[in-house]
TrEMBL record:
Highest taxon in the source lineage: Bacteria
Stretches of the chain forming a coiled coil according to its record: none
Protein name per the record: Type 1 glutamine amidotransferase domain-containing protein
InterPro entries: Class_I_gatase-like, DJ-1/PfpI, Prot/Nucl_acid_deglycase
Domain DJ-1/PfpI positions: 29-225
Length: 232
């Protein structure tokens, strides 16, 4: 079986262009659904974040009106998985050689810290260079922006990927006063961003890169990663 590293943001607020601070945290389904799928497949799962900080739960992901009727199960699974795991690994101390896949869940946190985290960038460059699996879902693909090589080139430029769309950001009510919009930024950096219908499952696999558009894409992304690990 394989070892999978789930890298979480450490941010609990997202500063807006109007100076306001938007509370953020991990999105329950984006942690719970992949963790559940990986454990079911027999993989070992570790959690890491910058400095080992455990960010809070994004309360929107616990609201059935926002996150769907199954959100309570996702919240319970995520909280138990993180509680059972104990202190998160410090991202700066993690080695890519220890893992077969690195997975990046969302919440708005990656827009705050992971997109420019040098330790994550080092981890992702090495993971991609060795052909191991990189997965990201919803706002998680923001973290891919950290993967800049020794020549200053973004290693995921030209790759097909999904991510939370500008349209979904507007529908969610967080596009106004956002410092930048994820899908637009990915395209600006050279990604071949593709999208499905708002809030419907949509995943893309481009070689060793597996990405999902939104929370509903979390489980399909994880199953695609499981299939890729089984084939490797």
């Amino acid at each position: 079986m394989s070892r999978v590293l789930i890298v979480m943001s450490a941010a609990d607020v997202w500063e807006r262009t109007d100076g306001s601070q938007y509370p953020t945290g991990y999105w329950a389904e984006e942690v719970a659904a992949p963790h559940e799928a990986f454990v079911r497949a027999g993989h070992t799962v570790d959690f890491a974040s910058p400095r080992g900080v455990l960010q809070p739960l994004d309360q929107h992901s616990a609201d059935p009106a926002v996150a769907g009727e199954d959100c309570a199960r996702h919240v319970a699974h995520a909280q138990q998985a993180l509680g059972d795991y104990g202190p998160l690994l410090k991202l700066e101390e993690v080695s890519a050689s220890d893992y077969d896949a690195v997975v990046l869940p969302g919440g708005h946190g990656p827009l705050v810290d992971l997109f420019q985290d040098a330790d994550l960038g080092r981890l992702l460059v090495e993971t991609d260079r060795t052909g191991k699996i990189v997965g990201a879902v919803c706002h998680g693909p923001a973290a891919l922006l950290s993967a800049v090589d020794e020549q200053g080139e973004w290693v995921f430029a030209g790759r097909r990927m999904a991510a939370f769309t500008d349209e979904e950001e507007r529908l969610f009510g967080t596009a106004d006063n956002a410092p930048w919009l994820l899908a637009s930024r990915l395209r600006e950096r050279g990604a071949r961003h593709e999208q499905g219908a708002p809030y419907q499952p949509f995943t893309i696999q481009d070689a060793n890169l597996v990405t999902g558009q939104n929370p509903a894409s979390s489980a399909p992304m994880a199953e695609a990663i499981n299939a890729a690990l089984a084939a490797s």
